[in-house]
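As a point of orientation, let us examine one representative protein, giving the amino acid sequence and backbone structure tokens.
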Amino acid sequence: MQPSRTVSPPIVCGVDGSEESRRALHEAARLAEALGTRLEVVMAWQHSTSMYDAYYPEPGRGPKAVAYGVLEELVRGEFGDARPEWVHLHAELGHPGTVLAAAAKDAAMLVVGSRGLSGLASPFLGSVSLYCATQAPCPVLVVRPEGRP
């Protein structure tokens, strides 16, 4: 008997439009389907700091709408035009690590991609996957870049 998708804790997947996040989405979708649970696909967005955007905003293309468009494109790439009913999209305001850790509050697992920054670059540039691995309240799967050991 397959567990109910509405009762089982979801798989949460953080995406940002990168190839690494596409790989993470693929793995998260496989897990959610195998476990018979929901897949919550989450993208964090932040307000633009560009002065140009403040003076010349594109109508209807605020940062949340852009983030949601990227989400839809990623999910369409994974599932085609027929998105399963168990896949839900969320575009949330905030720092990606903070948004993903909060989204994973009641999750079975959080899945994120890793850009594979070197040990030296990661502390200076910040690492969302490292933040999630240390701050998320659930198990975290970090999907490494293809071809990396």
User: Anything to note?
Assistant: Residues 118-122 have pLDDT under 50 and may be disordered. Helices lie at 19-35, 51-55, 63-79, 96-103, 121-125, 128-135.
